[in-house]
Design goal:
The chain is of the alpha/beta class. β5, α5 and β6 form a beta-alpha-beta unit. The chain has one domain: 3-Layer(aba) Sandwich (Arginase, Chain A). It starts with 36 loop residues before the first strand and ends in an 11-residue tail after the last helix. It is globular. Strands 2-1-3-8-7-4-5-6 form an 8-stranded parallel sheet, with helices on both faces. α1 packs across α9 and α2 packs parallel to α3. It is built from 9 helices and 8 strands.
Length: 321
């Protein structure tokens, strides 16, 4: 079957404030059949511990994505010229049940995306969604190398007695053998904690922890060279919590921590993933009620675009139109 290379709706065809509310105004389909990669939303915030609002994240990210043009001037990559990409809407989560929502997310990714050998790029939603995503990914690819960009380790055993919440997904993923800890990274961890050993659990599992202080005043290009060397061509998954960035760049999130990564460092991380065998990615924790001017959602949309620009280097993406 001939590959159809879907194109974002350009501003010379329809003004940016009009047209469909999909990511970059791409076509919308009910599933990922015949697609190489797809965008999908997870409008959920009932896994959060404090400030809600991430249920509105996917819609706002899509709205702000109209500002992005299809060609990446910095990397010379045009993902829509080589990949068939579309938006397949949102996971039909259940706002009355976190557990049912987790089950629905895993089933959605399995049935509507991975069964078609399509690469999923998710828009959160709170970071609880990482657990069902990795459950689905691991069924297809086995334990993956995790590149986790975040202010928080998300390795709590429980939160108010609950095993599943936005502060627990990495711990659950390790326990369920969903990630390969020998080649996984957590980048940008920082802030206050409950004890001096709050980040040590990750280290004890073999995950390399790169704190925000380790990143201050330097380029992260050398770090990403280390990441690529450690992971090689193992299947890798990239999860990007928007609160990894300093609040000066991304104030619209539920758990702010000062002293975070810069926007340039975010680009260095994302562009440093080129060459990896990425099997999926997401950007989470965008909370529009705390994002008065849309800046956080705009950065999130650009993060997702940069993910799309990284995947043409994977084996599946090597095709000519």
């Amino acid at each position: 079957m001939k590959t159809i290379l879907h194109q974002p709706l350009g501003a010379n065809v329809s003004p940016k404030f009009g047209g469909p509310t999909t990511f970059m105004r791409l076509p919308s389909f009910p599933d990922a059949q015949d697609l190489d990669a797809c965008l999908y939303g997870i409008p959920m915030d009932w896994g959060t511990s404090a400030r809600p609002g991430t249920r509105f994240g996917p819609r706002q990210i899509r709205a702000e994505s109209t500002q992005i043009r299809p060609y990446n001037m910095g990397t010379g990559v045009s993902p829509f010229a080589v990949l068939s990409i579309a938006d397949i809407s949102d996971v039909p989560v259940n706002p009355y049940s976190l557990i049912r929502s987790i089950e629905t997310i895993e089933q959605f990714i399995t049935d509507k995306i991975l069964r078609y050998d399509c690469l999923p790029i998710g828009m959160g939603g709170d970071h609880t969604v990482l657990l069902p995503i990795l459950r689905a990914i691991a069924k297809k690819h086995g334990p993956v190398a995790l590149i986790h960009v975040d202010a928080h380790a998300d390795t709590n055993d429980t939160m108010l007695g609950e095993k599943i919440a936005h502060g627990t997904p990495v711990r659950r993923a390790v326990e369920e053998n969903l990630i390969d800890t020998s080649c996984s990274f957590q980048i940008g961890l920082r802030g206050s904690g409950y004890a001096a050993d709050d980040f040590d659990w990750s280290r004890q599992q073999g995950i390399r922890v790169v704190t925000a202080e380790d990143c201050w005043h330097k380029s992260l290009t050398p770090l990403m060279a280390d990441v690529r060397s450690a992971i090689g061509q193992k299947p890798a998954y990239l999860t990007f919590d928007i609160d990894s960035l300093d609040p000066a760049y991304a104030p619209g999130t539920g758990t702010l921590e000062m002293g975070g990564l810069t926007a340039v460092q975010a680009l260095e991380i994302l562009r440093g993933c080129r060459g990896l065998h990425l099997v999926g990615g997401d950007c989470v924790e965008v909370s529009p009620p705390y994002d008065a001017h849309g800046m956080t959602a705009t950065i999130a949309a650009n993060i997702l675009f940069e993910m799309l620009c990284a995947i043409p280097q994977t084996p599946k993406a090597k095709r000519t139109p």
